Amino acid sequence: QVQLVESGGGLVQPGGSLRLSCAASRDIFRIQTLGWYRQAPGKLRERVATISSGDNISYVDVVKGRFTISRDNAKNTVNLQMNSLKPEDTAVYYCYAMMRFVSYWGQGTQVTVSS
After folding, report:
1. 103 DSSP β-pair partners
2. Share of the chain above pLDDT 70, in %
3. What 3-state DSSP class applies to 114?
4. How many CA atoms lie within 13 A of 34 on its CB side?
5. 109-113 and 46-52 strand pairing
6. Residue 54 three-state SS
7. What are phi and psi of 17, to 5 degrees?
8. pLDDT at 107
9. Contact by Cβ (8 Å): 62, 89
10. Rounded distance, CA 79 to CA 82, Å?
11. Which is it for strands 57-59 and 109-113: parallel, antiparallel or unpaired?
């Protein structure tokens, strides 16, 4: 099992940046997949970005070129650098891990993009 704790959310103006961090309770080196999902009010949860144990990275099209996912195996963290934020990026962002084909989720952190 693994516990995931997100941090770094908040209120930012359009065009601004935020960095989300997710701390895992165990060594992430062998975790199959890590990533970030988000859920806006009234919408389904959607995948934002994922990174595999082999550092294969995937982004949803709407964040390509603006968001960057990375993992720090020494610190057991997975991070999401979000630049050029838009109001439509407003959502609760969830850290995600898949290990031995079981999914784990953090509690979520709110990101609000508004002037």
Report:
1. 98
2. 100
3. coil
4. 29
5. unpaired
6. coil
7. -130, 150
8. 96
9. no
10. 10
11. unpaired
Name the strand (E) or helix (H) holding 110: strand 109-113
Q: What share of the chain is helix, strand, coil (3-state, %, to 5)?
A: 5, 55, 40
At position 72, the amino acid (one-letter code) is D
Reduced 3-state DSSP string for the chain:
CCCEEEECCEEECCCCCEEEEEEECCCCCCCCEEEEEEECCCCCCEEEEEEECCCCEEECHHHCCCEEEEEECCCCEEEEEECCCCHHHCEEEEEEEEECCEEEECCCEEEEECC
pLDDT tens digits, one per residue of 39-57:
999 999 999 999 998 889 9
Closest Cα to residue 7, out of 24, 26, 25, 20?
20
pLDDT at 3: 95
- Are the beta carbons of 96 and 22 closer than 8 angstroms? no
